[in-house]
Amino acid sequence: QQGISGARSAKMKKDESFLGKLGGTLARRKKSKEVSDLREEGKNAINAPMLPTGTDIHPEDTLLEENAERIMLDPTSRENLKFKDLLKVLIDWINSELEEDRIIVKDLEEDCYDGQVLQKLFEKLSGRKLNVAEVTQSEIGQKQKLQTVLEAVNELLRPHSWTIEWNVDSIHSKNLVAIVYLLVALAMHFQAPIRLPEHVSVKVVVVKQKREGILQTALVTKELTIVFFVLFYKERDAFDTLLDHAPDKLNVVKTSLITFVNKHLNKLNLEVTELESQFADGVYLILLMGLLEDYFVPLYNFFLTPESFEQKVHNVAFAFELMQDGGLKKPKARPEDVVNLNLKSTLRVLYNLFTNYKNSD
């Protein structure tokens, strides 16, 4: 019995010794981890001295493979007025292009990530039908659709020296910076009838996975639009610049346009004093086109005294058709914008007529 007791005592000592060693090992590991954490914090502090304290890096943003990186919009940039303006211009443009598809975009991150809107937009702009499923609910299906859409986009843009700042994962993960880069590139390539605000830049947090699980973070400025964008629209620049940067000269332009239209409308004993409102129902536009092209427009082709919004839109759209019949390009403005008393749209339409017919009697 004493032998058994001695054996137990020896085993207990051995267990205690093992637990002591294990405890020591765990303590050393804990201390080592604390040192490692401190070292990581120090590296991050060195690598990202400007990183805002309010920037939240979510756990899923740190699950990266070695040397992989993820880019996130810095929260302060979301409040940047020029960036907000850029988002609004892009959203309005998409909604205008996809109006016939009854697609309404309200939020670029939530509405563009699954590829549906991007597919429709690319097809509309390029006139090319993509071989993709119309509706895809699963993540795999959405990524497959995005892959097809982005391959078509990249194939189109690469020969024109575009830097591809987007991929399937960044778009699908609702990376707003990547989505905006893509939309700006499409707008510029297809010469969209919009004016993007110049020099829009945002700050992004770049999280990069280094060896041994260490995350490196940095704050980087990304420029989303640049000044040479206006080179794509030489025929619009003078007018756009006037509206955007020289509002004091706007009255001079309006006076010139009123003089121009009245020179012709006076032949019918008509006179314009207010450009925004008097062309909104389309009647004067139609009569003006008839005078400029020297023909009589049958009254059954339009509403002489339109009452509803639809009748006014019909009139303005018909006037646009007459302009195209006269050899002018399709107006960049939408009929609805003219009816809604949008001054810029109305002035653009009249300015187009002025530049083409200013020397006609």
TrEMBL record:
It comes from Cyclopterus lumpus. One of its GO terms (cellular component) is lamellipodium. InterPro entries: CH_dom (IPR001715), CH_dom_sf (IPR036872), Parvin (IPR028433). It comes from the Eukaryota. Belongs to the parvin family. Its main location: cytoplasm. SMART domains: CH. Keywords: Actin-binding, Cell adhesion, Cytoplasm, Cytoskeleton, Repeat. PANTHER family: BETA-PARVIN (PTHR12114:SF7), PARVIN (PTHR12114). It holds the Pfam family CH. This is Parvin, beta.
